[in-house]
Amino acid sequence: QVQLVQSGAEVKKPGASVKVSCKASGYTFTSYYMHWVRQAPGQGLEWMGLSNPTDDSTIYAQNFQGRLTMTSDTSTSTVSMELSGLRSEDTAVYFCARELMAACYFDNWGQGTLVTVSS
Amino acid sequence: QSALTQPRSVSGSPGQSVTISCTGTSSDVGDYNYVSWYQEQPGKAPKLIIYDVNKRPSGVPDRFSGSRSGNTASLTISGLQAEDEADYYCCSRAGGPYVFGTGTKVTVL
Questions:
Q1: In this complex, do B97 and A47 lie within 8 Å of one another by their Cβ atoms?
Q2: What percent of chain B has pLDDT over 90?
Q3: How far apart are CA A9 and CA B40, in angstroms?
Q4: What values do phi and psi take at A22, rounded to 5?
Q5: Is A35 an interface residue toward B (CB < 8 Å)?
Q6: What share of chain A has pLDDT > 70, as a percent?
Q7: Separation in Å, CA A11 to CA A6, A46, B31, B57
Q8: How many of the other CB atoms lie within 10 Å of CB of B107?
Q9: Segment holding A4, helix H or strand E
Q10: Nearest to B45 among A44, A47, A112 (CB)
Q11: How does strand A92-99 pair with strand A106-109?
């Protein structure tokens, strides 16, 4: 069955970077986009960006331009998200989610990774 | 891209219907047939319940329905049940990027 398994929780200091990975299995990795969505404590969902594993192209939300890097590794079916210049407001659960049709159609999600930014 | 606007909360008694609105602009909700809705329960990842404005994935009960008028999409839950108590989010394409709604908490009285 389809599984998206994310790396474990992280605690980082302000100004540092964090890298979260999402390993896919149970489907053809290059047939789906992979998105990252975050949710701060008590807040709503925020779309961060997407990666196309076929050609490693990316689209980032304007709010994260310059701080966000997404990469794909087809040899391990893994997508990674690196966020730099962390601040306390980046404390959130980060989800990966796959999408087939470029239509806000996220049919499978990772379990979420809590990133805590604290001095 | 600004978040799509949803009411903070709606409530209803079991068996009643509730409708959640999702207001965007002519650059997102009003421009694409790609509006979806997600149900999020505490401690779980969001679950897709409506896509392409009004289509239901396999396994989603038909008491969930979607529609759109102009720049506003809507999710209606008919015959409200206790297990429908959750947070609901709309999502739309906005050109290359995507945007979520602000979220609505549905309470079953």
A1: yes
A2: 84
A3: 21
A4: -140, 110
A5: yes
A6: 100
A7: 15, 20, 40, 37
A8: 13
A9: strand A3-6
A10: A112
A11: antiparallel
